Structure to design on (409 residues):
């Protein structure tokens, strides 16, 4: 990756766009994987970068929420629009994809959020159907999408769901299958940033979480962490077969939801955990107390035709094996965030409220590099797996907030 000093400041083309001076840039693993493996680069030359924290220098003409001078997070899931790419001194962002940062949250900490939050919120809110309205006036994403999604003959004012995410948003969950407070969800790769945020969001809404990690590296930190990051059940993922056996014995048919953040192999293991012999009694030596108290907000599950199916969400891949009748595979509809303004605005404004209330804890910052040149250093660190405790994120900070690149937990 090379640095150019001749590119013009990107222009605002729509009334809902803002111009931001970047101060801290997030390094996403896809930014080294895309060129190395030849995907996700729609044109050359290409400017990478998906998230940053900075200051608004030109406000939107249509949004009253974002004002000039605000410190903000810009979340660019729209990788085809290079004006929104983060590896620039000045960046364009849609106002509904822009999040104001509370004054007590450092910019480097704010930059650890972004795409990971959007992915986690859509995975839990759309693919699992969790209603966030109980926490900081959050959105019921599934209801929001289904109410506002336009058919091919709809009137203006609604948005047209892209064909590749339409089935996920409208047909992924049958009536009575939405996750409710007290339900269990297994999250594989609990040390990753997306998993970190998914655990927090799930626990905020009363779900019980089984986190699967390499406990030799991450077990003590996670088990000792304060709520909402501390899992209800911590499982060592070093031996996948053993991890599956623990989930089956501990939770049995109560485990209906799973989120994988690692890859196809771990997703396949979660699929095996979800496909259980319902009549087989759990191993008492491993079982979680079925009478353990759950949140008082627990709601009765609506009656559905037949037994509710299990649901597996893959952030980085899904099993090769067919899903079958017991399990539904889900892919996170990440483009909803930038293609459906109502969804983008709801998530961005909710993240502001979560940060303001201290209800969501940004992942830890664990390493620093300097300047634009530090971007390549940070990406190379991720390639080699040498970021602290193998966290896959790094950050760059521009002049005015110290020149640095930092990595996070």
């Amino acid at each position: 990756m090379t640095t150019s000093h001749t590119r013009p400041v990107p222009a605002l083309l729509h009334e809902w766009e803002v111009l931001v001076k970047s101060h801290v840039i997030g390094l996403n693993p896809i930014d080294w994987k895309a060129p190395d493996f030849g995907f996700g680069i729609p044109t050359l030359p290409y400017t990478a970068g998906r998230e940053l924290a900075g200051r608004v220098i030109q406000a939107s003409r249509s949004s009253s929420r974002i004002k000039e001078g605000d410190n903000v997070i810009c979340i660019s899931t729209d990788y085809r629009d290079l004006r929104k790419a983060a590896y620039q001194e000045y960046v364009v962002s849609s106002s509904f994809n822009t999040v104001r940062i509370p004054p007590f949250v450092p910019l480097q900490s704010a930059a650890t959020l972004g795409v990971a939050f959007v992915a986690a919120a859509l995975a839990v809110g759309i693919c699992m159907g969790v209603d966030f309205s109980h926490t900081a006036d959050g959105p019921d994403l599934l209801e929001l999408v289904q109410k506002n999604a336009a058919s091919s003959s709809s009137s203006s004012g609604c948005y047209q769901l892209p064909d590749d995410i339409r089935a996920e948003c409208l047909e992924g969950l049958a009536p009575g299958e939405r996750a409710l407070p007290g339900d269990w969800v297994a999250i594989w790769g609990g040390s990753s940033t997306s998993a970190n945020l998914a655990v927090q969001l799930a626990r905020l809404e009363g779900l019980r979480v089984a986190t699967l990690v390499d406990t030799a590296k991450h077990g003590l930190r996670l088990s000792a962490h304060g709520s909402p990051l501390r899992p209800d059940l911590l499982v060592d993922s070093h031996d996948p077969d053993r991890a599956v056996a623990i989930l089956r014995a501990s939770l049995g048919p109560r485990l209906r939801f799973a989120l994988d953040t690692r890859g196809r192999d771990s997703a396949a293991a979660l699929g095996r955990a979800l496909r259980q012999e319902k009549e087989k009694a759990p191993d008492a030596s491993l079982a979680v107390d079925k009478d353990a108290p759950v949140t008082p907000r627990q709601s009765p599950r609506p009656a559905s035709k037949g037994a509710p199916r299990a649901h597996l969400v893959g952030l980085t891949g899904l099993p090769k094996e067919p899903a079958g009748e017991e399990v539904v595979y889900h892919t996170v509809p990440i483009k909803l965030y930038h293609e459906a303004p109502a969804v983008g605005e709801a998530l961005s404004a909710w993240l502001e409220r979560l940060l303001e209330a201290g209800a969501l804890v940004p992942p830890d910052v664990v390493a620093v590099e300097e300047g634009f040149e530090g971007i390549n250093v940070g990406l190379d660190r991720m390639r080699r797996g040498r970021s602290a405790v193998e966290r896959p994120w790094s950050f760059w900070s521009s002049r005015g907030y110290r020149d640095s690149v930092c990595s996070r937990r």
About this structure: The CA atoms of residues 125 and 141 lie 6 Å apart. The first strand starts at residue 17 and ends at 27. Confidence is low (pLDDT under 50) at residues 151-156, 278-304, 386-396, 398-409. The chain has twelve helices and 16 strands.
